[in-house]
């Protein structure tokens, strides 16, 4: 004990009760042993500038005792600062709470508005759009504004052989008004019949007279779907696409190509010779 006190008086360095090596410098491992921390923690102190060190080579880093004691003397305890991520988390939480309150107030205002309009319903005016891909809301109207008989959606699909999706496109194209009767959607007969007539004229009234469908050819000539398409592509049969995905084949081209193929076919030629 007396020797340690005498050493402290001679060197002028404080006595912390550690077993300091008898060298003027320390290595990273020795500093870690003295502080009872890992070597990575010592390196972090050096990177932050808290502890001064001298890097001799890639594998040799030395710390003088004076720098070690200077770090202990000048480094004071301070309260841990809040990280940037924690601050951002608090801001995000406050923002989410504010948005929830705003949505709750908006929903409350909408409910109050619905209650106020139940007693006095307002008439919706039909606004036909030039572009048939208009909003469905624009086609809703009142029963009083549409006179005459009505079709239901099921009646239209059954009578005209339409699907719901196909009639939806027709309804948007020709701005057919819609009347809501409880949970059933109804459409004026006059408007629907007029739209169907215009659509038939647009697609061609004499479609079945001059064109084969793929199923017609399959039924008449006993071919498969792939054979029909391959024959038409090979012989240059003109086609027409209807309703987006239905392919029709011109009868004149198909019959001429079929006769030409039968004339050149070896199997049909042998049958004729027999």
Question: What descriptive keywords fit this protein?
Answer:
Multidrug-efflux Transporter Regulator, Chain: A, Domain 2; 274 residues; Molybdopterin biosynthesis moea protein, domain 2; 4-stranded mixed sheet; 3-stranded antiparallel sheet
Structure description:
The protein has 3 domains: 2-74, Multidrug-efflux Transporter Regulator, Chain: A, Domain 2 (Orthogonal Bundle), CATH 1.10.1660; 136-203, no CATH class; 207-267, Molybdopterin biosynthesis moea protein, domain 2, CATH 3.90.105. The radius of gyration is 45 Å and the shape is elongated. Helices cover 55% and strands 13% of the residues. The protein is of the alpha+beta class. The strands form 3 sheets. Strands 4-6-7-5 form a 4-stranded mixed sheet. Strands 1-3-2 form a 3-stranded antiparallel sheet. It has a 3-stranded antiparallel sheet with strand order 8-10-9. It has 13 helices and 10 strands. The termini are far apart. Helix 2 (28-35) crosses helix 3. Pfam families: HTH_17 (PF12728). InterPro entries: DNA-bd_dom_put_sf, HTH_17.
